[in-house]
Specification:
By secondary structure, the chain is α+β, with helices and mostly antiparallel strands. It has helices at about 5-20, 105-120, 125-145, 150-165, 175-180, 185-195, 205-210, 215-225, 230-245, 250-260, 265-275, 280-285, and strands at about 25-30, 35-40, 45-60, 65-70, 70-75, 80-85, 90-95, 125. Strands 1, 2, 3, 4, 5, 6, 7 and 8 form an eight-stranded antiparallel β-sheet that branches. A hairpin with a 2-residue loop joins strand 3 and strand 4 (about 65-70).
């Protein structure tokens, strides 16, 4: 049975994760307007591309593919591919397999199989989600500080994870797709919540900060995280309470007041709802370990 596009990308991610020491970084680059021609069989490496601006047409032996701005796409350089000069800006990450490794042949075949399915696919990922990763990859490759190669690989994996998640937003009629552009806003809200667990937080105030109505803001937040803002805030408070229960001598009432629950009873209610244990039970179990 043929796997879905999502499964092929998942296989690629898991393969790279499991073989970080066997993957060899050849180059990273950002370039504009200049095309390329790769003759079939001339190279035995792989490319991951991100089209920052413009569009490109890529010719294969068996057809033509058009790629547009903000799309991730994949290229096996053992297979003929060609792109004409044009108006575009592309980021490229090139990697191969370290030679003289017992698993290198099997790994190469696995990657080729992934790429044979992924080469015709494209994954749209907004620049606000990915451009920082590309900048860091380029900086790491140029500066070559300690463990730079591992750091680059980790950034590339993050890019692929973003591409994988983008599959869930392919249907433009889906509300979650429309909320994707607000991911940075949601990240800022999460940071704000994390830094103000002891405060009384108003949805109206957060909405005004981001020029959104509190109802729409709450919907966006839920679309991106899976939780309304207040429930997410409670989860953050429960996580902080866990740490305080284990690492401090504060009473349950003191923790409740510190986290703006208002009473130990309300903290206990929320804590048990989220963890299955009362704060006292949680403290006792973790202090016995």
């Amino acid at each position: 049975m043929k796997c879905s596009n999502q499964n092929h990308l998942e296989i690629l991610i898991e393969t790279l994760k499991a073989n970080l020491n066997t993957i060899e970084i050849n180059s990273t680059a950002i370039w504009s307007n200049t095309g390329w021609t790769i003759e079939g069989g001339a190279w035995d490496n792989f490319e991951i591309y991100y089209l920052i601006e413009g569009s490109v047409q890529i010719k294969y032996e068996n057809g033509i593919k058009t790629v547009y701005s903000e799309e991730v796409f994949f290229m096996d350089n053992a297979i003929f591919n060609q792109c004409e000069d044009g108006k575009f800006t592309i980021f490229g990450f090139n990697f191969g397999i370290v030679q003289n490794k017992a698993l290198s042949i099997a790994l190469y075949k696995t990657l080729q199989n992934c790429y044979s399915n992924l080469s015709q696919e494209k994954y749209k990922v907004g620049k606000n989600l990915i451009i920082n990763y590309l900048t860091e990859i380029t900086k790491e490759y140029i500066m070559k500080q300690e463990q730079f190669d591992l750091n680059i690989k980790m950034f590339v994996l993050q890019v692929l994870v973003k591409a994988l998640r983008s599959i869930n937003f392919e249907n433009k009629g889906n509300v979650r797709y429309k909320s994707l552009k607000y991911t940075d806003t949601v990240s800022k809200i999460i940071l704000f919540l994390s830094e103000n667990l002891h405060c009384s937080i108003s949805l109206d105030e957060i909405g005004k900060t981001h020029n959104l109505s509190k109802r729409y803001l709450d919907q966006i937040f839920k679309d991106v995280t899976g939780y309304p803002i207040i429930q997410y805030l409670q989860l953050l408070k429960v996580e902080r309470a866990k740490k305080l229960l284990v690492s401090s001598t504060l009473s349950i009432l003191e923790i409740a007041l510190d986290l703006n629950f208002g009473s130990s009873q309300y903290l206990s209610y929320i804590f048990k709802k989220e963890t299955g244990f009362s704060p006292g039970e949680y403290r006792k179990m973790n202090r016995m370990k």
